[in-house]
Specification:
This protein has five helices and ten strands; from the N terminus they run E-H-E-E-H-E-H-E-H-E-E-E-E-H-E. The protein is α/β, with parallel strands linked by helices and 217 residues long. It has a single domain (2-215), classed as Rossmann fold (3-Layer(aba) Sandwich), CATH 3.40.50.720. The strands form two sheets. The chain has an eight-stranded mixed beta sheet with strand order 3-2-1-4-5-6-10-8, with helices on both faces. It is globular and about 45 Å long.
């Protein structure tokens, strides 16, 4: 039995992942929520899930939620004018709360702002990048750089394409690419939240490591 903690379970990506995970009887899921008022924001699932109130700004609170988890899925999407290192700081708090990372894995839902372009810049620097999500795009680029300096045995970072469709059809398939040096072609791809969630669940079951670009077929 794999014990899993899902951070960001009430968000749109988190809810999609939660629905997929509930179909697997070999994964014991705990959904992290901010407070009891968030119960109603969780997806209706096939299998019953556990919940845990977690303050992501508190290492102590994170420790109480993560100490028994084999895998932590970070589907949190910080909003607003967040600092560039906000996601790096969150990952560091999660790691500090876990302590010994041996046989533990953090799977993070990535951001397109971290994608590399031909001119040596990142996608968040492109004029076409959405201005309202610019702080998050910058933060994801910082997070990706930070993760790539860590031992690859402890993390996976899954990036959806810019056309990441909340209400898109669940086709039931996806395409996984190892991060190439030229990621420009990936910018033209698309995927639904539901199909991206299938890839996250496969990453959990197969314990993927490193950077993965996930698009529709």
């Amino acid at each position: 039995m794999t014990r899993l903690l899902l951070l960001g379970a009430t968000g749109r990506t988190g809810n999609s992942i939660l629905r997929q995970l509930s179909e697997n009887e070999n994964i014991q899921v705990t959904a992290a929520i901010r407070d009891t008022s968030n119960f109603s924001e969780l997806s209706k699932t096939i299998q019953p899930i556990r919940t845990k109130i977690v303050d992501i700004d508190s290492t102590f609170s994170l420790h109480n939620a993560t100490f028994q988890a084999d895998i932590i899925v970070n589907a949190i999407r910080l909003r607003g004018n967040i600092p560039p290192l906000a996601l790096v700081s969150l990952d560091r708090r999660i790691r500090e709360s876990i302590g010994d990372m041996e046989n533990r894995l953090i799977i993070t839902v990535g951001g397109t702002g971290s994608l590399h372009m031909l001119n040596g810049k990142r996608f968040w620097e492109d004029p076409n990048f959405p201005k309202r999500t610019l702080p998050r795009g910058m933060a994801h680029a910082k997070l990706r750089d930070y993760l790539e300096d860590l031992p690859q045995t402890s993390w996976a970072y899954l990036i959806p394409p810019p056309a990441y469709i909340p209400n898109g059809l669940r086709v039931g398939t996806y395409k996984r690419l190892e991060a190439p040096s030229d990621e420009m072609e990936f910018l033209k791809k698309s995927i639904s939240y539901e199909d991206f969630a299938i890839a996250v669940c496969d990453a959990i079951k197969e314990r993927w490591k490193g950077i993965h670009l996930i698009s529709g077929e």
